[in-house]
Amino acid sequence: MNATYSACEEKLSALIEEHEDLKMKYSRLKEDVENIKREKDTLIQEHLALRKDYSELSERYSESETRRHISYELFKSFVDDDSQKVMLLDASYAIRYINRSAREWMHISDEQERIGQRLFDFMEYTDALKLKEKIDKAFLNDSEEKVKKLHIRLGENGSPVKAKMKVSRVRYRDKPSVKILFS
Question: How far apart are CA 131 and CA 35, in angstroms?
Fold first, then answer.
């Protein structure tokens, strides 16, 4: 009986020890669950704050785009009605805007048919090099440069016409650009 009693005591002792281990594991798991809940709550708060910030930024961006569009339309209405012949080029010398006076002078019926074309496509090679040099100088030095005795082709297959130009650096639609005034 002593052997049976000893075996039972050993089993009971092992079960008590296993029970204590399980209680400790349960306690650690309970702590882990509480930590996860706290982290989840923190993440939810951060997510809500980010959604609010995103919403505010989206609204500000939309307002900015609206103001920029209004500014562009005001600019366009002001410059389009100007009697001076104005053309705007981007940094790659592509035409980005031509006002009404310049379109009429160049025999262009639709502004969009020339947007994106390089101004140099309407000139002889030597004149294009001369103009490019003046554009670069005006752009880099933020100065106004005058170009005389250049020949520019008007219309689709028009013959070259002498032109004088004033070249200066400007910003157009928030990008560096070059303004050319023809005379």
Answer: 69
Q: What is the DSSP letter of 93?
A: S
Strands 145-153 and 160-172: antiparallel
- Domain ranges across the chain: 1-81, 83-182
- Cα 144 to Cα 128, 131, 136, 165: the distances in Å are 18, 13, 11, 10
Q: Which amino acid makes up residue 2?
A: N
**Architecture per CATH, 83-182:** 2-Layer Sandwich (3.30)
Q: pTM value? A: 0.57
Q: pLDDT digits over 123-137, tens only?
A: 888 888 898 998 888
> What is the spatial distance between Cα 135 and Cα 89, in angstroms, rounded to a whole number?
10
